[in-house]
Amino acid sequence: MKKYLSIIFVLSLLFAVTQTPAYSQSPTKEVSEVLDSQVQELKDKVAEKVEELKERKKQAVSGIIQEIKNNVITILNAENNKIDVDVDDTLTSYYDIVGTKVKDSSKDNVEKGDYIFVTGPEIGETVTANEVYTDTQYIVMSGKITEVNAEDFTIKMVTIDKTNYILDIEKSSKRNLLDIKTLKTVSIGFSKLKEGDSVHAVVKADIEKPDQTHFSAIKLLIIPNEYFLQ
Amino acid sequence: MVVGEKLHMNRETMIAICFGIGLGVLVGVVVLFQTNKGEETKVIPITRENDQQKAVDEDVPANASGTNLSVSSPANNSIVSKNSIEIAGVAKKNSLLVIQSASAEKIQKNENEEFKVETPLAVGENVIQISAYSDSSTPQEQTLRIYYIPAE
Could you say which DSSP state residue A221 is in? Predict the structure, then answer.
């Protein structure tokens, strides 16, 4: 009897020992594969984040020059925040945007009141300038036409934040009206402008008059009020 | 007599062998079950957690804040070296999208919530206003400043 029990014990032990690694190896391999794919996924995410941060660094700041002192240019941006721009005589390059061209310039051509944008690393409220570009400042605004004056070819408009503007409509001003049926724009004359219509305008800012509310319109897009009554 | 005893012994040996194998299989199955159970608790939940997170992200719309317009790209103040850029985001379905800058004017009806509009850029700073008219003549607006500096 002892002999049989020994055989049973030895055989069951042998079978269990030989079978267990065979079964357990497969899940271990699967676990390893899952871990590998997760590590790869993590690597991809890190690479993606690094790329995103690199892209984020490719940013610029812009504003009107308030002061130039030694190697620091102080600008006031569109949100009325002052930003210090550190410039270096050898490392910082200067350019002018003239139409569709970027022309070389120099530090001597940059003066108080100019509108500039700057590229370079930004730490806090200070930017270390790699490049300084002098440019034209445009303002894009939208609102409703409140008055059309056919005598002096101006319109009055009020924006969402309740600011009132007067726009001179020049012969050179591009005027487009939305066709509410086709959703295409058509060029229009001054007589088609009317009170109550929505207007999107692009104007050139006069840097010397930061609080001005009277502009010459470069382009207008009119969305007739009828569009909203459909 | 001796032959009968031997046959009896062989039969008992065979039974013992079978019983041994059966017990071995049982032990093997138990071990296998335990291994699989261990794998499930250690590995699978990580994947499931990720999947659940992804599912939650997919369920939340980009304009969940209640606004009718949300521009996802490009980032404000970006510098690019191409003369056009794709503006992408989410706006209320059927809203009228107006994209305007000194060099661009685009109008389109937003058929789906998501939109992608290729917009031309002028050299230098581009102030781009994106407006979405949905239920009224007062639009939701977002303004981007994009800087186009051509590659030399």
Answer: E
